[in-house]
Amino acid sequence: MRKIGLVPISGKPYHRGHHALIELAGNQNDEVVVYVSISDRTRRGEYPILGEAMHKVWLEEIEPIMPANVQVQYGGSPVRKIYETIIAACEENSNNIFTVYSDPADTAANYSASNRHKYMAPLYNEGNIIFAAEENPDSVTRGLGTPNIQGSDLRSALALKDFQLFAALLPEGVNAQNIYEILTAENSTEDALLKDFVAIVIG
Question: What is the pLDDT of residues 10-24, one digit of tens each?
């Protein structure tokens, strides 16, 4: 029997709060699987974060600071990947204990009681599926167990071109300048093209 942590991460962008959650999982389990979304996050009025850019950030800066017992898997919906992993474990009659790490709000929204009984039986009924937000809510709550940081804080810093604020929200051990340049490169190109277009039209 092994203790396995499962951590779904959207991370647009990745910040100290995400890292604290993964470190917690690493300390509490024999192994941890982090499921990472690499889809684009483009919403009106918000700084866009491209999945391809975040994938590059993960490979160059985030994976190197992962705890030794953590593996990262990319693509698809992280929450769906959690379900698929647990369903497979149920089909294999696994005796491992799986703990899902999300904050209380996300846990309630993504893992309803009906879905647990439908997709996570028999392991959930046997106590082999645990939700960290229910075992120890404070440990995975923003501002209590993890830093009080949201992805919107970093996106705002990027929109304002405030490198110092952006860097302060990143986990230790990464090259903040590299991450900043990767995430702003696409928009810098678009800005330059727009300026060229305006210059041509006006000229």
Answer: 999 999 999 999 999
Q: What pLDDT does 192 receive?
A: 45
Pair of tokens at residue 137: 């809510």
CA–CA gap between residue 140 and residue 24 (Å, rounded): 9
CB 174 within 8 A of CB 166: no
What is the CATH code of the structural domain delimited by 3-202? 3.40.50.620
Report DSSP state, residue 171.
P
What are the tens digits of pLDDT across the range 181-200?
A: 999 996 654 454 444 544 55
Residue 169 corresponds to which tokens in the numbers above?
A: 């929200």
Q: Which long-range contacts (CB under 8 A, 24 or more apart) does 79-85 make?
A: 79/8, 79/110, 81/8, 81/35, 82/6, 82/8, 82/35, 82/110, 83/115, 83/119, 83/120, 85/6, 85/33
Q: Where are the domains of the chain?
A: 3-202
C-alpha distance from residue 73 to each of 8, 35, 175 (Å) = 10, 5, 22
